[in-house]
Amino acid sequence: MSATEKIRREKWIDEKTKKIKEITVKGLEPEIQKLISRHKQELKKLRTLHEAELLQADDRVAQRYVRQCEELRLQLEREKEEQCHRERELAKQRWAGGARRSRLRDSVLEVFSRLLLTSSQSLSSLLI
């Protein structure tokens, strides 16, 4: 093979290789477009799913917040009732203590009155 023939052959091989590449790229282009389209659809689907998951997470957080608020309200209501009960009991005890003191005072006054009456009668009988 001569040098010119060899150069011509290499040039021919290069042209054929280039043409095969172009044909291959053009032939694969529809498949590539399908892959790109499918990829875009998958991304859209994933974004939609992700958005739905975020909404569900927001709903769960909101429900937990409402539940915690209700539990706190019930706890505060119980504590208020317990405090009211303690205050009522304390008031009853004070009133009972006051009534007891009042009865004791009345009893002491009655005893003192009887003693005074007895002593005045004794003193009168001694003077007569």
From TrEMBL:
One Gene Ontology term from the biological process aspect of the record: regulation of centrosome duplication
GO cellular component: centriolar satellite; cilium
Full protein name: Centrosomal protein
Species the sequence originates in: Liparis tanakae (Tanaka's snailfish)
